[in-house]
Amino acid sequence: MFDRNSKAFPWMIVSIIALVAIVIAVFVVVIVNGARSDEPEAVETTSVLTSAPVATSTPPAVEEETPVNSDVPEVEVGPTKSLAVSQWGVTFDYSTKLGAPAYSIEGDTVLVDTALVQTLPESCAAARVGWGFSRTTAADATHVNQVGEYYYGIAMPTSGCSEDSALFDELHGLYAALAASVH
Predict the structure, then answer these.
(1) Nearest to 92 by CA among 127, 135, 122
(2) Which of 8, 9, 21, 136 is 20–30 Å from 114 (CA)?
(3) Exposure class string for 88-100: b at 16+ Cβ within 10 A, else e
């Protein structure tokens, strides 16, 4: 088929070797990128908030009137992952206990919805929305984490959940840690 005395024969050999080298390079890149995606994305950190635990009291009959205690409950945050809010140029760390987050921006508030929030009982539906963090240009009692020109703090529902106060307190602590982690 090939005339060995032909001048094109060496170029055919070089072409075949180049093609094999390209295929091998593609496999190496795929393997290296595959190994990177197998590594956990999480920045493994463990922190405990040091506030006093929430005192329990007899809940009122109407859920919407349950006040939210401003003291942050002590929680074990556990492993965290980072998520960027590109519109604001910041990143926050969230506990993997929360599940995969989805966020939306409303004014100066980033609302962060997670699977754990959605496990609140149906009677606490009002407490399923409003979780996240907000920013202001001046520090106040809840906005103490400064990044650039803004101060960041927890955003949470105005009503609590007396039916599952332990879960609500866990969410309160995890979202407080999330707001404190904005960088």
Answers:
(1) 135
(2) 136
(3) bebebbbbebbee
3-state secondary structure of 90: strand
Number of Cβ within a 10 Å radius of residue 50: 7
Domain range annotation of the chain:
1-39, 63-180
CA angle, corner 102, sides to 49 and 148, nearest 5? Answer: 60
Which pTM was predicted? 0.61
Alpha-carbon distance of 183 to 179, in angstroms, equals 9
Which position has the token pair 């969410």? 171
Contacts of 79 (CB under 8 A, 6+ apart): 42, 44, 45, 46, 95, 96
How many CA atoms within 13 Å lie on the side-chain side of 148?
9
Give the Cα separation of 166 and 149 in Å (integer).
35
d(CA 47, CA 44): 10
CB of 63 closer than 8 Å to CB of 163: yes
Helices (H), the chain: 9-38, 165-180
**Model confidence over 56-96: pLDDT tens digits?**
444 444 444 444 556 888 888 889 999 999 999 999 999 99
